[in-house]
Amino acid sequence: MSDQNPVFIPGPTNIPEALRRACDVPTLDHRSPRFGALLRPALAGVRAVLGMEAGEVALLPATGTGGWEAAVTNTLSPGDRVLAARHGMFSARWIALCRKHGLDVQVIEAPWGEGCPTDAMGAALAADTDHRIKAVLATHNETATGVTSEIAALRAAMDGARHPALLMVDGVSSIGSIPFEMARWGVDVAVAGSQKGFMLPAGLAILGLSPRALAAMEHAGLTRAYFDLRDLLGATDTGGYPYTPPVGLISGLAASVAMLQAEGLDAVHARHARIAGGVRAAVRAWGLELCARRPALYSDTVSAVMAPPGCNGSEVVTLAAQKYGVAFGIGLGDVAGKLFRIGHLGSVTDVMMLSGIATAEMCMADLGWPIELGAGVAAAQDHYRTTALAEHRAAA
Question: Is CATH 3.90.1150.10 correct for 265-395?
Fold first, then answer.
């Protein structure tokens, strides 16, 4: 019966039935006009979701990690210096990937639970008067800690330092769920994946490329072959691919962006904020804390709930899977065992979220955690009843 329960991990997310069907397409000739008819609306829809005004969209058969690799190998050269903050598992993994490619990574350390340290990043850029730093890497939403960083503030710090580095942003667990403004924030490369806010199976790395990023591709010296975006973009400009594309996923992506636009991006963002607010109300009612250190950092796509002293967050995840057939996220890296994660992004509603909150509550009670059974559910119910009524009145 567990396959009938929604998942509450921060990705892959629940797949709406309409998108599952959209991915289920018969074999077609990917060099025919029929494929171009699928590809073009997918590309156009991604542009809208990313908030692009100029540049190009690339769809790679890969996951977000492949998107990270494509971002750096297509724009940088061996020995180039990049500036990055390490404040969670996924920012750390992007740094490790860059080092494997022979890049000189200047790392600014920040506590897990904090966001991107924009002041320190700005100071490092201001000190780089020779402009040796060629790119700045930022994780918009750190999935391991439930922290959302302010990319607009990072762009302001870069502009304040008058630094020409490219700005590359990992938006894998944010894009399609919370506001992302590629053009307004001056993002040069945005990386997303099909399995999060786009509500699809894993398998597509989705990149937005600014005109500056496209120009950098012409003289970048890192090795690239399968992930050479020049070949990809040259083919997709005419409705094709340089190799066999994942036709089903691209069909699903066209349907996904149409679904997001039909709901309205502002409404999508408001829904995620409302649902996240209910989860946070439940956490407060349990007497627990989030890993994110202050409200300005709270993510609207994933909440990392700290375990009380003497308790292990991973036990909640294990028990939920074994006893109730429900999936939550474990703690990763520096916070392994210290927390459990509740994903609330993609195809999720207030009612679905209440079932996840109730399951987490039952597990904590089963494990003897010091929580009052029903307290979190009641707090979330109060939040959803109040906010749903306010949004209903506003819509009317």
Answer: yes
